[in-house]
Write a structure and sequence with these properties.
Elements lengths: L1 H6 L2 H8 L21 H8 L11 H12 L2 H7 L5 E4 L8 E4 L6 E4 L7 H16 L8 H14 L2 H13 L19 H9 L6
Parallel strand pairs: 1-3
Antiparallel strand pairs: 2-3
Helix pairs in contact: 6-7, 7-8, 8-9
Length: about 200
């Protein structure tokens, strides 16, 4: 066997050693994405919003993530986006989202400094946009809309309103809402609707 492998040309050897994937396994296809022109401005604007609940341990982050993805609210708006898992992000300086090409699993890498609700929702927003609009810019209007909606629903309407105000001041382009994403909390629905109203029709 070893002598046979040595006799193969490099391309033939690469084909032979290529990992196989089950025929029915979901496979993510790389897609060219729009230019990420507002990334820096969005980071600056988002940094002014509250971090939300601190969750230093990965199992707690995963439970919080599962609660969001498994909620009726999330399903009504985004449907199933596949499996999403939290990774400890060992060796990573940044929080990141990656989709594994072999099976489509979304991996959210969260190093210790990033383990709070807002950054968890930020990386989840990447998973949503990657699944639903793979050609969209990573931090474009579609991403900004999903992040605003997630923070307003799963962090708090007040924090969502603060983030919306920060986006407005930072001139962040936000896609228009397609559904009412405010929580039904006494006294908070009107405040949230007012804070998000300026985003209607944004481009």
């Amino acid at each position: 066997m070893a002598s046979r492998l040595r006799s193969l040309r490099p391309r033939a050897l690469a084909r032979l050693l290529r990992p196989t994937v089950a025929a029915d396994a979901p496979v993510a296809t790389p897609v060219a994405r729009a230019r990420d022109s507002q990334r820096t401005r969005l980071y600056r604007a988002e940094a002014l919003a509250p971090r939300g609940q601190e969750m230093p341990r990965v199992p707690r982050l995963q439970r919080a993530l599962d609660e969001v993805v498994g909620s009726a609210w999330f399903g009504e708006r985004y449907g199933s986006i596949g499996t999403v898992v939290v990774d400890a992000g060992a060796g990573n300086r940044r929080a990141t989202h990656r989709q594994r090409l072999t099976d489509g699993v979304h991996i959210l890498k969260l190093p210790r400094w990033a383990r709070c609700r807002r950054i968890l929702l930020h990386e989840l927003a990447h998973a949503v946009v990657t699944h639903r609009q793979p050609a969209a810019a990573p931090h474009g209007p579609e991403f900004a809309r999903v992040l605003l909606d997630l923070v307003g629903q799963f962090q708090s309407p007040e924090d969502g309103a603060m983030l919306a105000d920060s986006f407005r001041n930072g001139r962040i382009r936000v896609a228009p809402p397609t559904l009412d994403t405010t929580r039904k909390r006494p006294g908070s629905q009107q405040r949230s609707q007012a804070a998000f109203a300026w985003l209607d029709g944004s481009s």
